[in-house]
Amino acid sequence: MSCRVVVLISGSGSNLQALMDQADPELCQIVAVVSNRPGVLGLERARRQGIETAVLDHTGYADRDSFDRALVTLIDGYRPDLVILAGFMRILTPAFVAHYHARLLNIHPSLLPKYKGLNTHRRALEAGDQEHGATVHFVTEELDGGPLILQSAIPIVAGDTPEALAARVQQREHLLYPRVMNWFAAGRLQLHNGRACLDGDPIGPNGLRLENTEFDMREMPDA
Prior knowledge:
CATH class: Alpha Beta
Largest sheet: 9 strands, mixed
C-alpha cells in the first residue's frame, strides 16, 4: 500500500513540482495539496496533475491555535501517512507538531543548524561563508531545529547576491526533497528516539550530504 502524502504550501510551489515529478509511483501518492493562501501558483500546479487541492485561509482565524486545529481536521480528512511542508510560511503550534510526530518534514534554505529562520541567503553572504545550501529535516517544536536528514551544499562565489544564491540553492532543494520523501515512503527513513535513522542506522547530527547526486557517507557516524 502506497504512502499517502499531503503537501502544505503558501506560494508558487516549485518544491511541490519537484515532489510531484519525482515521486516514486510504486511507493507514494500525493493525495492533496493544501494552501493557507488562495490563488497561489502551487495550487494550479497540483490541479494540472489531477491532485486534489484545498485552501484554508489563515486570515479567517482569530489566532494560531484555532487555525492549526482547523488545519489538522482538514489534513486528517486525507488520511496522510506523511505531511510535507513545501514553502508553507506558517510557524506551527506545538499541538500541530505533536499530532504529526515523526511524519512531518520540512526543507530549509541553509546548512542547518546555521541560519534558522528567515533571510538565510543574505545572512550567509554577510557572514563571509564559503558555502551555503539546503537541509531536509523532521519537524519538532523548535523552529528549524528538528533532526537533520539530508543536506546539499553549494559554493558561494565572488559577486553572489542573495537572489543568485537563492536560485542555486533552490535547484538543490529540488534534488533533496523528493529523495527524502521516497525514503520515507519506502520505510527506509524513520524518527526513532529523537534521531533520524536511515535503514535502521542513526544519521549524524549534521545529516547526510548529497553532492553531485552522490552521498558523502562521512556524515554517517558509527552506529
